[in-house]
UniProtKB/TrEMBL annotation:
GO terms for molecular function: 16S rRNA (guanine(1207)-N(2))-methyltransferase activity; nucleic acid binding. Keywords: Cytoplasm, Methyltransferase, rRNA processing, S-adenosyl-L-methionine, Transferase. This is Ribosomal RNA small subunit methyltransferase C. InterPro entries: DNA_methylase_N6_adenine_CS, Mtase_sm_N, rRNA_ssu_MeTfrase_C, RsmC/RlmG, SAM-dependent_MTases_sf, Small_mtfrase_dom. The lineage of its organism: Bacteria, Pseudomonadati, Pseudomonadota, Gammaproteobacteria, Moraxellales. Its main location: cytoplasm.
Length: 335
């Protein structure tokens, strides 16, 4: 059982009725509560876990639109994402219904609890297992701001073409172009045209550049995160290239069907506050099966992430196209 769930179960009398669990970990908390539980998750792996466990789970950027008596929020990493989640939960619950906030001290629960002050004075319920549990009851009815109010935008220009990148709360590098992506952008003009897979699409800048640079390119953008997938859709809509895009929620490269002329990725290596390499290592090992003859793999990664042996083991070779600013650009093709 996750430590945060253990803290909740120290106070079982607090939880009853119809409960919305938000961003919950993969454990047995749901079946341990004497309540009717629904899940709101934007992580596709978590969503799949709860579906397979027999629970009502919604994978979306908004919570299920039904009546709840309580909400239990496991704090996300991004402060602005927590503001977004709190506003949606307060709106769907209404006045005087408890919103519980739980998280680890090292993940910033004490700072997160201060964000509850926008709704009422929060109360600390418990502190154990290096975690804290807080509660607040909204003193008035809250309205959800339009999605546009939560969007961050930044501009990118290439070959006299201007792109407007859109990103929702919690999406990697929400308000600026990250250093890793900067390193692979000069090589996108070399990527083989046709059907292209963007693994870990984020806000969609790599996908959008590939689509805008060649109207014949069709991009399949995949990610584990609902906010990332929706951000990519918004980026394509803002730049009038939506017909060139397909988005798919996945947990791993092995969830992808189809054959592609190229796979391009600035792969994630964090889940929450924890470092997680498995998805990226699987990309290196299993992407070859998704490529057509002479298909290409392009990956940019932090220099300390040693993906080269995985790529060489799969493809028989691996070129380092660039090594600067702390990032390497790896290339291989299916011979």
């Amino acid at each position: 059982m996750d430590a945060k769930s253990e803290v909740l179960l120290r106070q079982p009398e607090l939880f009853s009725g119809n409960i919305l669990l938000v961003n919950a970990p993969q454990d047995q908390l749901s079946q341990s509560l004497d309540a009717t539980v629904s899940i709101w998750s934007w992580n596709f792996a978590d969503h799949q876990y709860f579906l397979q466990s027999g629970y009502h789970s919604v994978f979306d950027i908004v919570p299920p639109q039904q009546t709840f008596d309580q909400a239990i929020i496991f704090i996300p990493k991004a402060k602005e994402l927590l503001n977004y989640v709190l506003e949606h939960c307060a709106a769907i619950l209404g006045q005087d219904k408890p919103i519980f906030l739980v998280g680890e001290k090292k993940a910033g629960i004490e700072g997160a609890a201060k964000q509850l002050q926008a709704f009422a004075k929060p109360v600390k319920i418990d502190s154990a297992r290096h975690c804290q549990l807080w509660q607040v009851k909204a003193q008035q009815q809250h309205q959800v701001k339009p999605l546009e109010a939560w969007l961050k935008h930044y501009q990118y220009t290439f070959k006299q073409t201007h792109l407007d990148i859109c990103a929702l709360p919690g999406v990697f590098s929400q308000d600026h172009l990250d250093i890793g992506t900067q390193q692979i952008l000069p090589f996108l003009a070399q990527v083989k045209a046709g059907k292209i897979l963007d693994f870990g699409c984020g806000a969609g800048i790599i996908s959008a550049i590939l689509a805008k640079s060649n109207p014949k390119n069709h991009i399949t953008a995949v990610d584990i995160d609902a906010f990332a997938l929706h951000s990519t859709q918004l980026t394509f809509a803002r730049n009038n290239i939506s017909p060139q895009l397909t988005t798919i929620a996945i947990t791993d490269i092995r969830d992808v069907d189809g054959r592609f002329h190229a796979i391009v990725s600035n792969p994630p290596f964090h889940q929450g506050i924890k470092t997680h390499y498995q998805a990226s290592e699987n990309l290196c090992q299993f992407s070859k099966a998704l490529l057509r003859s002479a298909g290409e793999l392009w990956i940019v990664a932090n220099r300390f992430l040693n993906y080269q042996p995985f790529i060489e083991n799969s493809f028989g070779h691996c070129q380092i196209k660039s090594d600067q600013n702390g990032f390497k650009v790896f290339y291989a093709n299916k011979k």
